[in-house]
C-alpha cells in the first residue's frame, strides 16, 4: 500500500510491537479505495467489499484505539483499515461523490 506510507509504517509498528505476524503483510496490501457503505465510513478497502469476516484487530496508541484492521474469515489477511484517530490521508482516501 504505497499510497499511504505513513499509515503503513504506523500499522506495522503497532502490529510488530504486539508480535503480530500480519505486520509482514501490511506493506504489500492493495488499496482498492475507500469503503462506500456510508458517507461517514472511514474504512480503506484492501480486499473486495464483502470479503471481511467478523474478526478484527484493534490497535491502540497511547492507550486509545486508533486503527481497526478487519480480517478475512481465516484471520490471515487484512481486508480493511479503519482510522479512528481522525488522521487525514488526503484525496486518495476520500470518496468521490457523484451528483
Q: What report would you give on this structure?
A:
- The chain has 99 residues and is of the alpha+beta class.
- The chain has one domain (5-85).
- Helix content is 13%, strand content 25%.
- It has one helix and five strands, in the order αβββββ.
- A five-stranded antiparallel sheet has the order 1-2-5-4-3, covered by helices on one side.
- The protein is globular, with a radius of gyration of 13 Å.
Figure out the total of helices: 1
The tally of strands reads 5
Q: Summarize model confidence as the mean pLDDT.
A: 86
What form results from the Cα inertia axes? globular
Give me the secondary-structure topology.
Elements: H1 5-17, E1 33-34, E2 43-45, E3 56-61, E4 64-71, E5 78-83
Antiparallel strand pairs: 1-2, 2-5, 3-4, 4-5
Features:
99 residues; 5 strands; 1 helix; single chain; 25% strand; alpha+beta; five-stranded antiparallel β-sheet
Compose a concise summary of this entry.
By secondary structure, the protein is an alpha+beta fold. It is built from 1 helix and 5 strands, in the order H-E-E-E-E-E.
Amino acid at each position: 500500500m504505497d499510497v499511504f506510507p505513513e499509515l503503513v509504517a504506523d500499522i506495522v509498528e503497532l502490529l510488530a510491537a504486539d508480535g503480530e505476524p500480519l505486520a509482514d503483510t501490511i506493506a504489500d496490501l492493495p488499496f482498492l479505495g475507500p469503503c462506500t457503505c456510508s458517507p461517514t465510513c472511514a474504512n480503506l478497502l484492501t480486499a473486495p467489499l464483502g470479503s471481511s469476516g467478523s474478526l478484527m484487530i484493534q490497535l491502540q496508541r497511547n492507550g486509545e484505539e486508533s486503527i481497526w484492521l478487519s480480517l478475512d474469515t481465516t484471520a490471515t489477511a487484512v481486508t480493511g483499515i479503519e482510522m479512528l484517530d481522525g488522521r487525514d490521508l488526503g484525496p486518495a482516501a476520500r470518496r468521490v461523490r457523484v451528483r
